[in-house]
């Protein structure tokens, strides 16, 4: 992420009036007042390295998710600033949460983003299942929507670089069949001001999550749209493989790289352990692996292959998802915090 990109965010914070220090936001009932609304913290939804996401209630009686990030002098790049820039750019796109409000508290040093509240993450939804994976039909249907979100992001000149089940969630109420993409903290612009693909840098540091990282990331090579597609493919397998990805139990980056490389050769079959309908899935991986940094992705080919895999299995890719068949509703971590 370059400084030039940070400037492109167009982030114009609105100052909010509140004098309580950042840490008190952790308490239920704490109020954040902006020019638009008063937000009351209901509960913590999740915490990251530099901030947290809260479930908030507005003075108009609606609910929203509020992401708060500490402003750190030493950090060059604000993750939240990047998230706001991307959400602004994609506008009302189906797979992205809408921005409701945003601002900055200069004195206490934090930024906030109030956004549309969504439901549980794919990681949490999967954990709710007895077998800890989705059914084949749900997995492929959900993965297809996950790719639509990535396609939209790529269309706007960004790559995500951290695709994984925890960074996607289902919607609430009548949006339970819609998948949302979250967390653009390490996204990168791969298109320059002239709308050309940026010249790849000679070497790039590791970014993202080891389990879902593409080969290029392990090898310190510049990532492009096809690398997001590779991470997306690991995500798809993670949603449906009962034993998880073959490198699930490995922690060391180089061991994981080796396992990913082996799955391209003699150990190909270990990628699909327990799956019955693998021809179309393997066709997708062959296609992704044939792409280079600068290539334009044929997303339609991938959607079509997913549909064909469902047809082979006698399933409808648009059928209701596993969680739509259960009555349970709720935002991320709600279940675990209720059961504590
Ligand atoms: N709009 C939203 N509605 C409901 N829950 C959300 C929303 N946005 C994020 N969350 C939840 O909040 C938690 C933290 O979200 P997210 O990963 O975006 O935060 P983060 O601080 O960037 O985390 P990290 O630093 O680990 O990447 C996750 O459990 C996520 O599902």
TrEMBL record:
Residues 39-311 form the Protein kinase domain. It comes from Caenorhabditis brenneri (Nematode worm). It holds the Pfam family Pkinase. It comes from the Eukaryota. GO terms for molecular function: ATP binding; protein kinase activity. ATP binds at residue 67. Keywords: ATP-binding, Nucleotide-binding. InterPro entries: CK1_Ser-Thr_kinase (IPR050235), Kinase-like_dom_sf (IPR011009), Prot_kinase_dom (IPR000719), Protein_kinase_ATP_BS (IPR017441). PROSITE patterns: PROTEIN_KINASE_ATP, PROTEIN_KINASE_DOM. SUPFAM superfamilies: Protein kinase-like (PK-like) (SSF56112). This is Protein kinase domain-containing protein.
């Amino acid at each position: 992420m370059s400084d030039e990109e940070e400037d492109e965010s167009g982030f114009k914070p609105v100052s909010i009036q509140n004098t309580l220090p950042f840490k008190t936001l952790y308490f239920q009932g704490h109020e954040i007042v902006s020019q638009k609304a008063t937000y009351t913290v209901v509960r913590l939804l999740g915490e990251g390295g530099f901030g947290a996401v809260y479930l908030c209630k507005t003075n108009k009686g609606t609910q929203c998710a509020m992401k708060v990030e500490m402003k750190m002098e030493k950090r060059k790049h604000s993750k939240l600033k990047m998230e706001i820039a991307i959400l602004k750019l994609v506008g009302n796109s189906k797979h992205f949460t809408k921005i409701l409000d945003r601002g900055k508290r200069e004195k206490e040093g934090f930024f906030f983003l109030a956004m549309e509240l969504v439901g549980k993450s794919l990681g949490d939804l999967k954990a709710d299942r007895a077998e800890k994976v989705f059914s084949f039909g749900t997995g492929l249907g959900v993965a297809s929507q996950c790719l639509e979100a990535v396609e939209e992001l790529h269309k706007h000149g960004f790559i995500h670089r951290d695709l994984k089940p925890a960074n996607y969630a289902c919607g609430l109420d009548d949006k339970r069949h819609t998948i949302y993409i979250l967390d653009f903290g390490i996204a990168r612009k791969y298109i320059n001001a002239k709308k050309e693909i940026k010249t790849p840098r000679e070497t790039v540091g590791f970014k993202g999550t080891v389990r879902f990282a593409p080969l290029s990331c392990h090898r310190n090579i510049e990532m492009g749209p096809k690398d997001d597609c590779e991470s997306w493919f690991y995500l798809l397998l993670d949603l449906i493989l009962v034993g998880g990805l073959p490198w699930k139990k490995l922690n060391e980056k180089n061991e994981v790289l080796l396992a990913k490389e082996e799955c391209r050769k003699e150990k190909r079959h270990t990628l699909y352990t327990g799956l019955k309908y693998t021809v179309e899935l393997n066709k997708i991986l062959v296609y992704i692996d044939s792409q280079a940094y600068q290539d334009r992705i044929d997303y339609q080919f991938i959607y079509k292959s997913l549909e064909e895999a469902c047809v082979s299995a006698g399933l409808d890719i648009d059928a209701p998802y596993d969680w739509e068949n259960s009555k349970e509703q709720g935002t991320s971590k709600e279940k675990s915090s209720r059961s504590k």
